[in-house]
Amino acid sequence: MRLVVGISGASGVIYGIRALEVARDLGIETHLVISKYGQATISLETDYSVSAVKALAHRVYSPDDLAAAIASGSFPTDGMMVCPCSINTASAIAYGLSDNLLVRAADVTLKEKRKLVVVVRETPLHVGHLRTLTALAEMGAVILPPMPAFYLKPSTVEEIVMHTVARVFAQFGVDVPGAPKWEGP
């Protein structure tokens, strides 16, 4: 399996970092692009260096490299996750404003009818945000905001993060071993 992973500047970069770690552990090939603000958010929100996050991927691209393999529909992938996805990035994807590689790769994913999962991090949402997310959903994107599953009675933030990451991988038909799942009451 080959997935493109985009990390935008939204809060919650740990979701993208954990997704890269899970993909590595499962032997999934990853192609990573981190936006300029995504790189800044990694430094603000985590103890990871940007270089350590990049080292988790099989291939890393500059957000300015619009000639990269992932910018073309002829480069086969099984889909893309934008994890986390800022509203700015979601809007650019929805309206085809492909001025950076993260947005272009997502645009290619949609035009090639491949799975695009956007882990949108914003609250509250105004009507413009909702229209953007509706446009993405109408194009075939999966809108997957990180919603805590309190029915699993998580005891750590890590469990909450991993539940969302497992939900993202489930969209690609991948089971994350050890991820908490609802088994019923």
Q: What form results from the Cα inertia axes?
A: globular
What is the ordering of alpha helices and beta strands?
EHEHHEEHHEHEH
Note the beta-strand portion.
15-25%
Count of helical segments? 7
Structural class: alpha/beta
Major β-sheet strand ordering: 3-2-1-4-5-6
Low-pLDDT windows of residues: none
Main sheet makeup: 6 strands, parallel
Average predicted local confidence, pLDDT = 96
Radius of gyration: 15 Å
Beginning-to-end CA distance, first to last residue:
34 Å
Total number of beta strands: 6
Determine the fraction of residues in helical runs and give it as a percent range. Answer: 40-55%
What does this structure look like?
This protein is of the alpha/beta class and 185 residues long. The chain contains 7 helices and 6 strands, in the order βαβααββααβαβα. It has a 6-stranded parallel beta sheet with strand order 3-2-1-4-5-6, sandwiched between helices. Strand 5 (115-120), helix 6 (127-139) and strand 6 form a beta-alpha-beta unit. Helix 4 (87-94) packs across helix 5 (101-111) and helix 4 (87-94) packs across helix 6 (127-139). The longest helix is centred in the N-terminal third of the chain and has 14 residues, at 13-26. The protein is globular. The model has no long low-confidence stretch (mean pLDDT 96).
Key words describing this protein structure:
185 residues; alpha/beta; 6-stranded parallel β-sheet; 7 helices; globular
Topology:
Layout: E1 2-7, H1 13-26, E2 29-34, H2 36-45, H3 50-54, E3 59-61, E4 79-85, H4 87-94, H5 101-111, E5 115-120, H6 127-139, E6 142-143, H7 157-170
Helix pairs in contact: 1-7, 4-5, 4-6
